[in-house]
Amino acid sequence: MTRTEFMQGNTACAEGALAAGCRFFGGYPITPSTEIAEHMALRLPKVGGVFIQMEDEIASIAAVIGASWTGAMAMTATSGPGFSLMMENIGYAVMTETPCVIVNVQRGGPSTGQPTLSAQGDMLQCRFGSHGDYSVIALSPASVQEMFDLTVEAFNLAERFRIPVFLMADEIIGHMRERLIIPDHVSSNQRKPYEPGSLPFKAGEDHVPGFPAFGKGYGVHVTGLTHDERGYPCATSPKLHEDLVKRLVGKVEGARGSITSCDILNPDAEVVFVSYGAPSRTVQQVLHDHPDDNIGHLRLKMVWPFAEMVLARFTNAEAFIVPEQNLGQIAREIERHTDKDVVTVPKLGGDLHTPGELYAVVEDLK
Amino acid sequence: MRHEIRFSGFGGQGIILAAVILGRAAVMYDNKYAVQTQVYGPEARGGASMSAVIIDDEPILYPKVATPDIYVIMSQEGFEKYGIAATGEAQMLVDSTLVHSRPSCHYIEIPATREARESLGRDIVANIIMLGALVAAIGIVSRSAIEKAILDSVPKGTEGLNVKAMTRGFELAEEAMSR
Q1: Which residues, in sequence order, are CB contacts of A301 under 8 Å at separation 6+?
Q2: Interface-testing mutation among A30, A33, A105, A177, with chain B (most B C-beta atoms within 10 A)
Q3: Which residues of A fall below an 8 Å CB-CB distance to B?
Q4: Which CATH number, 1.10.760.10, 3.40.50.920, 3.30.70.100, 3.90.180.10, labels domain A262-365?
Q5: Which CATH number fits domain A1-259: 3.40.50.970, 3.10.50.40, 1.10.540.10, 3.40.50.1240?
Q6: Could you say which of B20, B27, B40 has the minimum Cβ distance to residue A179?
Q7: CA of B175, closest CA in chain A: separation in Å?
Q8: Quick check: B20 contacting A, CB < 8 Å?
Q9: pLDDT by residue (tens digit) across A91-107?
Q10: Which of A45, A197, A330, B101 has the largest CB neighbor count within 10 A?
Q11: Distance (Å, rounded) from C-alpha B161 to C-alpha B159?
Q12: Where along chain A do its domains lie?
C-alpha cells in the first residue's frame, strides 16, 4: 500500500534511502543535513541496518566505502564543510569503483559560512572537487517528493555504475515539509555480481566490472593507486593509467544521453529558464503566473553529467536564463554548450529568488 | 482557496509544531496541498520564532510566504518582528496574554497562555489552543482534520490534554466572535 505523509525533505531523503535498500549510514551531523542522520539512526536498526556516527566527515566517507565493499548499500549526508573534508575519499571511491550515495544539503559557503541558510555553491565541487580526472552523477531535488524519489534513483545509479552518486539538495528543499507519497516498493538496481575466476577490475562492454564483495572469499586487492585488471598497483605505466581513467570517465559520460533526467516545458519558447533545486519552484511559479508569455523551462533533475543535448530541444531559444543560489556555476556549463545568450541570475545569502525577480529578467529580454 | 498563514512567538511555545500540525491536517485529512517552512536559525528557547504554511487546493509552486493573509501571533517580540507589517486585508489571532500591541488589520484576541495555565494547568498547550481558535474563527481546515493531526503529532499520554486545549480554542474563538 502506498502511503501519504506530510514530511520534511531531509526525512523523505532518509526514507528514500531505506526504500532503495540502504542498510549502512556513516556520518557526522551538520546543519542543515542533520535530520537525515537523525532519521537513519532511528530507523536503520529496525530494518537490520547499521548507523555509525563517526568522528568526522573524513572517517564517515571512509566507513561508507568500507561498508559498500561488504556488499551493503551505503550512504552519508553532510553539508559544505563536511563535503570539503570528504573530497579525498570521494576520489578513492571513484578509483576503487565503490557504489555509494553522498547527500549534500547545501548551505552558504565558503568555510563555515551560513550554516542555517540555503545555497547551491557546491555544484562544481561535487563534479571536480577531488583530484584527477573523473566523472560522477549528481541529482538535484526540487520537492520533498524528489528528496525521496531521487535518493532512490541515486542508489540505483551508484549500484549500476559503481560510482559515488551525489544528491545535491539545498536547505530550502531539505527543511520544508509537503506531501510525500511513499510507494509500496521501489525499483532497485543491484550491483552486478563478480564472476569467480574473472579478473576483478576487467570490465565488459558497459565498462563496469562485477563487484567482488568482501567476505566471499575472493581475495581481491582494492587500491587507490592506478591498478591493472587484477587490482594490483601499477602506477608507472602511462598506457595503463590512461586506459583506466578513460574507462572510469567513459562509463558515466558514455551513458549521458540515456540516463539524463529533466523536465522540459514549452520547448518552442524563445526565452528559457534552466534551473535545478529550489529556484525551480520560483520558475514554475513564473510560468504558472504568465501562461501567455510562452516561457520555456528546462528543469535539471540530473545536473551531472551535464546533458548538453537537451538544450537543443529548445529549437527557438534565444536566451537561457539561469537562476542559481550561487554566482553562476551551472550557467558557466551552459555557456560552454550554446551560442545563445546565457543570463545568469545569481542569488546569495540564503533567500530564494522571488517570482517577481525572475519575471523582471524575462521582461528585460523582451 | 489559497491561504498563507504565519505563526510567530518565542522558541519553546511550539510555533513550528503548530504550523506542521496545520499543514498535516490539510494534506493528510482534508486532501489539500500544503507547504510548511520556518525561519531556521541559531535562535534558542526564548528568541523570536516564526513558521509559515501555505494551504491550497492546487499544487503549491513557490514555497515561501511573502504576504500572509492570516497571522497567529503568540509573543510581543513575535508581533514586532513578524506581525506588525500585516496588511489591511489580513486577519490576525493574538495571544492576548502575551501580546500587548494590536495590529491595524482585523484581529481576534485569544487569551491562550492564560487559559492553558489556569484551565488546563500547562502553559505548553497554548499553541494548540491557538490552533483550535484559528480553525474555529477562520476555517482553513476542518475541525476533524485538525483534531486528527494534533493526535498524530503530540506525545503519547498527552492526547486528552491536547484535545481539551483544541476544544477550548474552538470555544474561545466562538466567544470572541460573538462579542
Answers
A1: A139, A140, A141, A142, A146, A150, A261, A262, A263, A276
A2: A177
A3: 4-6, 32, 115-117, 171-172, 175-179, 278, 281-282, 284-285, 288, 352, 354-355
A4: 3.40.50.920
A5: 3.40.50.970
A6: B27
A7: 32
A8: yes
A9: 999 999 999 999 999 99
A10: A330
A11: 6
A12: 1-259, 262-365
Contact A177 B41 (CB under 8 A): no
Strand A302-304, strand A137-139: pairing: antiparallel
Same topology for domains A1-259 and A262-365, yes or no? Answer: yes
CATH code assigned to B3-178 = 3.40.920.10
Per-domain boundaries in chain B: 3-178
- Work out the number of other CB atoms within 10 angstroms of the CB of residue A356: 12
Amino acid letter, B13:
Q
Distance from CA of B19 to the nearest CA of A (A): 10
Look over chain A and give the mean of its residue pLDDT values, rounded to a whole number.
Answer: 97
The answer to whether the beta carbons of residues B63 and B81 sit under 8 Å apart is no
Contact B28 A176 (CB under 8 A): no
Residue type, A45: P
| Whole-model pTM over 0.90 | yes
